[in-house]
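Recall that a protein's primary structure is simply its ordered list of amino acids. Everything else, from secondary elements to tertiary packing, is in principle encoded there. The following example makes that idea concrete.
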Amino acid sequence: MFGQKKALISGGIGFAEMINIGVKYQVSQQSQIGLSIGMWPPSDDWLFNWNSLISISGDFYYHIGGSSEYTEISPWYIRMGLVYIRVAGEDYIDNNLESHLRFGRDFNFSEDIGISLDAGVAAFLKNETGFTSVLPVFGTSLFFRF
């Protein structure tokens, strides 16, 4: 039996969302919207050097197939979204915006708990840091429905 739980909170890790917390809301039988905020610990090694690295992400999820014994929404999805990435060092601040398209799956362990895994490609719309214009992206998160 499926519950009426349409919202969820999550904690995860990925590129470009970093270590993040987020919320999602099911807006229809096949779609969800989500927001997350992330950060990465400061680094001062020779390759990466920043004092502050944060991300803010907004996504649309369209569920495309499969079934789960615990939820009415299909576990397989396409994820489209934007991520703002702010990289700050001692004497600079870089602002970046990437758009991504991902394919993923929710693994539901019960009506309340599951894990999401997804991967895809991102293109930078604004790239002050000098990242490669197109990058692979991926993420995993543990979620709780309420």
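The radius of gyration is 16 Å. The CA atoms of residues 60 and 144 lie 18 Å apart.
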